[in-house]
């Protein structure tokens, strides 16, 4: 599935919700999150996704038409990075190191996110369950 497509996002959400450790991973975090993928070579369009947790699972998500919608939603967290960094993180890069170095922009309680980093295997297992095709690895976006 193509990274950032509606089908890919739905599959990631389903895979996360199937993880038995998700409730612990979400514990102590804010109610909602927005993720922004900024354009970079191989991924010329921005991408913004919002999600809301409830009861230890992702209860709702939306693909946003543009990241200006984030201002209206006022999520507890906004995590923003160029596509190339997201690809690196999805391929095993360290998100805590990226956030602390400023490569990954986090608006919200970074300390709470860092505390929850021990739950990374929950996210890694979900991502491993979803086949991901990166646009720049197949010659560009459709």
Using brief descriptors, characterize the structure shown:
142 residues, alpha+beta, Nonspecific Lipid-transfer Protein, Chain A, five-stranded mixed beta sheet, 7 helices, 5 strands, globular
Strands, total number = 5
The low-pLDDT segments are none
- Overall structural domain count: 1
Overall pLDDT, averaged? 93
CATH architecture: 2-Layer Sandwich
**Helix content bin:** 25-40%
> CATH homologous superfamily name?
SCP2 sterol-binding domain
**Major sheet summary line:** 5 strands, mixed
Question: How would you summarize what this structure contains?
Answer:
It is built from seven helices and five strands.
Question: What layout of secondary structure does this protein have?
Answer:
Elements: H1 6-17, H2 22-26, E1 32-38, E2 47-54, E3 57-64, H3 69-73, E4 77-82, H4 83-90, H5 95-100, E5 105-107, H6 110-115, H7 120-128
Parallel strand pairs: 1-4
Antiparallel strand pairs: 1-2, 2-3, 4-5
Helix pairs in contact: 1-7
Would you give an account of this structure?
This protein has one domain: SCP2 sterol-binding domain (Nonspecific Lipid-transfer Protein, Chain A), CATH 3.30.1050. It contains seven helices and five strands, in the order H-H-E-E-E-H-E-H-H-E-H-H. It is globular and about 35 Å long. Helix 1 crosses helix 7. By secondary structure, it is of the alpha+beta class. The chain has a five-stranded mixed sheet.
């Amino acid at each position: 599935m193509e990274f950032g497509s509606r089908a890919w996002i739905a599959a990631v959400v389903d895979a996360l919700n199937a993880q038995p450790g998700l409730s612990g991973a979400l514990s102590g975090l804010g109610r909602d999150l927005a993720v922004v993928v900024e354009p970079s070579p191989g991924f010329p369009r921005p991408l913004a996704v919002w999600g809301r947790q409830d009861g230890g699972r992702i209860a709702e998500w939306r693909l946003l038409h543009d990241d200006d919608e984030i201002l209206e939603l006022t999520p507890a967290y906004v995590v923003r990075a160029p596509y190339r960094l997201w690809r690196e993180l999805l391929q095993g890069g360290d998100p805590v190191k990226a956030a602390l170095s400023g490569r990954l922009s986090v608006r919200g309680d970074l300390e709470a996110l860092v505390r929850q980093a021990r739950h990374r295997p929950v996210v890694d297992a979900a991502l491993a369950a979803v086949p991901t095709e990166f646009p720049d690895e197949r010659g560009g976006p459709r």
